[in-house]
Amino acid sequence: MMIYRSVFRVSQIRNKAPLLLQPQASRSFSQIQSKPERYSFGIAFDIDGVVLRGPVPIGGSPQALRRLYGDSGSLKVPFLFLTNGGGIPESRRATELSELLGVHILPSQVVQGHSPFKTLLKSYEDELIIATGKGEPALIMSEYGFKKVLSLDEYASYFENIDPVSQYKMWTTKQELVKSSYPRKLVPSYNITADRVKAAFVVSDPVDWGRDIQVLCDILRSGGLPGHENGQQPPLYFAADDLEYQAAFPSQRLGIGAFRIALESVFNRIHRNTLEYVTFGKPNPFVFKNAEAILRQLQPACHDNSVNNGSIGSHPFKTLYMIGDNPLVDIKGARQVGHPWFSILTRTGVFRGKHNHAELPADLVVDTVEEAVDYILKKESNS
User: Fold this and answer.
1) Environment class of residue 108 by beta-carbon count within 10 Å: exposed (0-12), middle (13-18) or buried (19+)?
2) CB half-sphere exposure, 67, CA atoms < 13 A
3) By the 8 A CB rule, do 204 and 134 touch?
4) d(C-alpha 61, C-alpha 309), whole Å
5) What's this model's pTM, rounded to 2 decimal places?
6) pLDDT digit of tens for each residue in the chain (383 aa)?
7) Which has the closest alpha carbon to 38: 312, 320, 350?
8) In the list 29, 279, 315, 365, which could disulfide-bond 238, CB 3.0-4.6 Å?
9) SS3 call for 242
10) Element of type H or E holding 6
11) Alpha-carbon distances of 215 from 150, 160, 232, 266, 314, rounded to whole Å
12) Which residues contact 162 (CB under 8 A, 6 or more apart)?
């Protein structure tokens, strides 16, 4: 399999002047006057820094999302969450979001950084693969259909002394509680210390950077079998490449992209060949095109009348709105893929500027996600 370093260039930049919605702009939330039989728009929301900060809703997100549902609680406007975060299955994330935001979120409405890993199932379904990151990376990959997957934590436990400072690590995390809620897997029927790892997946932000860098370097430079001579590097996949993101702490936190830089820097110093990898997540254009396909599948569910006229999945979107807080990820991705994407930048997360971002200006800048949804519904009601 060809291994390559993913590079995505801005292929389409809009020349029109971006909009700036100032704090004094109207925040009224009147209902759409005339409802089209089928909405020709969809919305993709980032999560951290847009609708949530940690576990706390921000920017009027519960009120804004409720406007996308009908009086009966059924979905009225097709929307999904498009995040580079992850660490738990999409079904569990949907349940958490439903509880925090007060609306019913379907698993199909949650697209996380590692969701595209499903597309690699045919290549590695029956091969030994390693998954690392916070939460339950191996469980996630298993739910995608991979049959021989181990967490890096579990994999390392089969190699004595692979982590030379493990004896000094006395800390524990909530991850142990998460593990205890799932039945332990049976002992693999294959010989882990003799079977080569065919691919490594960084599913979410790693917890133990030192240990993970050490073990990944062992796997990648040995050809998939730690402790052996140098071999061809197995494929390495990152769920995202965010350098920073907005969490509960006031200032930004280092993301999975920072871990990638650390791993790459170390690997390139100790190995004759440079590290090769593939990154997913925003701003990868593939992620936005995949989101559009999912929104198209959600569209018929929002309009029961369309079921009877045989037009399911055949109605193109005139506009797709990406609401995010990170110009380098959310706005860049929407700009790269171009029509029909329209980018909206909020001031509740990574971006805090008074004016638009200088290098990657959004089509619209607002204070909160509530203002963004208000703008969208008013604009679409008049179109």
Assistant:
1) middle
2) 20
3) yes
4) 34
5) 0.82
6) 444 444 333 333 333 444 554 443 333 333 444 444 467 999 999 999 999 999 999 999 999 999 999 988 899 999 999 999 999 999 999 999 999 999 999 999 999 999 999 999 999 999 999 999 999 999 999 999 999 999 999 999 999 999 999 888 876 655 454 444 444 455 566 788 889 999 999 999 999 999 999 999 999 999 999 998 888 999 999 999 999 888 889 898 999 999 999 999 999 999 999 999 999 999 999 999 999 999 999 987 676 544 333 344 446 899 999 999 999 999 999 999 999 999 999 999 999 999 999 999 999 999 999 999 999 999 999 87
7) 312
8) 279
9) coil
10) none
11) 13, 12, 16, 12, 48
12) 156, 214, 215, 218, 226
Neighbours of 77 (CB within 10 A): 22
Q: Name the token pair of 176.
A: 């142990």
Only one residue has tokens 């990154």, namely: 279
Q: Is the distance from CB of 214 to CB of 172 less than 8 angstroms?
A: no
- Total count of residues recorded for the chain: 383
User: Look-up: residue for tokens 């390495």?
Assistant: 236
Let me know if 313 is exposed, middle or buried by CB neighbors in 10 A (0-12, 13-18, 19+): exposed
